[in-house]
């Protein structure tokens, strides 16, 4: 199939195919006599592997490593499990960070619960790096 067909079936654009080729995630395709790229169902499966890896939060470097394993690189299942465990740890760290961020934003939203000028808005002050705690502000006044 041509690149447009593959891109359509895989749900990506043609530039993504070329990017995957440059990154070594997708093999250099065969070419027709007129220079058009020709892909196979194996290439489609590989792109689906890449996209599913991304859905699980794996980086392209990690996906490259997993593709090598899938392609038959000598590796033990324990190593594959370890890669997945490391990803879970990373996801848990992201969740903790996002929960902390949510708490901070909710606190700022609560502090900014009235209408008025933005010159004393805790959200704007925090983003500008000038945030003081509410209790310090009250003591200054």
Keyword list:
single chain; 141 residues; mainly alpha; Multidrug-efflux Transporter Regulator, Chain: A, Domain 2; 2 domains; two-stranded antiparallel ribbon; 7 helices; 2 strands; 65% helix; elongated
Overview of the molecule:
There is one protein chain. By secondary structure, the protein is mainly α. The chain is elongated, with a radius of gyration of 25 Å. Helix 3 crosses helix 4 (60-70). The chain has a two-stranded antiparallel sheet. It has helices at 3-10, 14-23, 41-55, 60-70, 77-111, 122-127, 134-140; strands at 30-31, 37-38. The model has no long low-confidence stretch (mean pLDDT 87). The chain has seven helices and two strands. A hairpin with a 5-residue loop joins strand 1 and strand 2 (37-38). The relative contact order is 0.07. The protein is 65% helix and 3% strand. The chain folds into two domains: 1-75, Orthogonal Bundle (Multidrug-efflux Transporter Regulator, Chain: A, Domain 2); 90-141, no CATH class.
């Amino acid at each position: 199939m041509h690149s447009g067909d593959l891109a359509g079936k895989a749900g990506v654009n043609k530039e993504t195919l070329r990017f995957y080729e440059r990154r070594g995630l997708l093999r250099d395709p065969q070419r027709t006599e007129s220079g058009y790229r020709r892909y196979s169902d194996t290439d489609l499966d590989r792109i689906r592997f890449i996209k599913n890896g991304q859905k699980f939060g794996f980086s392209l470097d990690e996906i490259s490593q997993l593709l090598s394993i899938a392609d038959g690189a000598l590796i033990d299942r324990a190593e594959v499990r370890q890669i997945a465990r490391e990803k879970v740890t990373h996801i848990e760290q992201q969740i903790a960070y996002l929960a902390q961020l949510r708490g901070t934003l909710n606190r700022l939203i609560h502090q900014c619960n009235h209408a008025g000028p933005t010159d004393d808005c805790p959200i704007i002050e925090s983003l500008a790096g000038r945030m003081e705690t509410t209790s310090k502000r009250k003591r200054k006044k």
